[in-house]
Structures are given as structure tokens and as C-alpha cells.
């Protein structure tokens, strides 16, 4: 019984820990966390990169993590996708954009793991594919679609997956000889739960970006300059003190929503715990 009591108490303290450890989370009108925006909260990612002034940094990030693609132009598009029937579920992407040659990229960030996350990404991919053709169009040529997800956790993989391999990518291939069926659909997962390097150990643009994505939410001082314009500018655009009054209000709302979501999940887990152990 003591073990269960300790576990239950841990759940009860997690909501408080979230407020005190999350950057910029506000309690009683005062900041209780770090000084930088946590980009792994979806509303925060939108807040930063929907700003036209930050498009060059978004392009630099996507070029680093999407293989065999060079992006020079990027246009943000509609994020909300309405169901085609009244009873059909709609979807709201964290970010969707069109890049060179009409290719579409959906960017998602996910703080907490969930068992259906891969299926969720597959569901999201159906929208940028089906939206490419209108009724009566008999031409089924497709512009490439990329679904890229920055995850604050590690996915489960089969076989001898290297523990420190952070980026995984998937396409549609034949089951036996892995022949590519189509190049129209790609999934990329940036698994930050597998990245364990410190700032001093990080090298190259990719690793410095990984360190910042994973740790901005816990930093009180900016990482040291690297000499890479994309990496170093990121510290400036995610500094909470640099936000406009309007953006700061949106940021505070994002953090309150994130806290509410996490608290609700903790309450559900706690109720299940009490039900299971009759306490």
C-alpha cells in the first residue's frame, strides 16, 4: 500500500510541478518559469512561426529535418480542415504550408505521448492529399505531402533501433523488397525524447536545434551563440520578453490552456487510480 500511496501522491503534485517548471507559466500574474517560449506547446509553435518575420527560421528548421528537400519559399495555408459530412471529425493542424513546387508540409508538435499518435498523423495526411483535386477532376497526379512531427517523447520501434537515433522517416513501400509505391506521402518524426546531448556536446545545426527545441522550456539564459544565423536567431524570437503585448496575451492563454488540458488528464488518471485500488 505505501507504494500505491506514493504513486498517487506523485500524480497529485504533477499539476503544481507543471506551473512551477514550465517556462512563462503564470501564477497570480507572475512568471514562475524560464524566460523562453516552449515550442513544444502547439499554440506557442503557431504563435512564433505564423509571424511572417520568422518564416526564414521556419524554412531553415524544415530544411534541416526533411530529407532530400530544399525549401526556398514558404506560404502558410489554412490550418482548420472541415469534415466533408456534418458527422465527420474536423482537424486543426498546428501548421500547414505550401513550399516550392506546390509541395505541402504539415507541421505538428506534441508534448505528451498518446497511443494513437501515429494513426492521428496518418489521418491528418488525408487532408492535404484529398484537397488537391476537385470534383470532376480525373487527373490524379499529386504534389508531395510531408507530415513532420516534433515529439517530446520517444516512439516505440521494432528491432535493433539505435537509442540515440532521433529522426525517423516513413514512406509507402512494398512489404518484401521495399520498392517505393509513391513519393507523394512522407512522415518524419523528430523524437526529442531520444536526444540527450548537452549544449556543450551538441554540434552542427541539427543538434543545436534539437537542444533548443527540447530545452527552451527550462532555460533561464540564452544558449551560447553558435555562429549559425538560423540557430542563433531562434533564441531571440522565442524570448518571452520580446513578445508584443498582443502576442504575450496569446502566449499566456496558450499556457493556461495547456495547464487545463494536463490537469484534466491528471484528474482522469487519479480517478482511475482510486477506482482500481478503492481508495
Produce a short descriptive summary:
With 279 residues, this protein is of the alpha+beta class. It is 38% helix and 18% strand.
Structural key phrases:
279 residues, alpha+beta, six-stranded mixed β-sheet, two-stranded antiparallel sheet, disordered N terminus
Note the beta-strand portion.
15-25%
Shape descriptor reads globular
> Could you give the order of strands across the largest sheet?
3-6-7-8-10-9
By DSSP, the count of extended strands is 10
Low-confidence stretches: 1-12, 18-32
Order of helices and strands: HEEHHEEEEEHEEEHHH
The largest sheet is:
6 strands, mixed
Q: Helical amount among residues, as a percent range?
A: 25-40%
| Rounded radius of gyration (Å) | 20 Å
Q: Could you tell me how far the N terminus lies from the C terminus, measured between alpha carbons in angstroms?
A: 10 Å
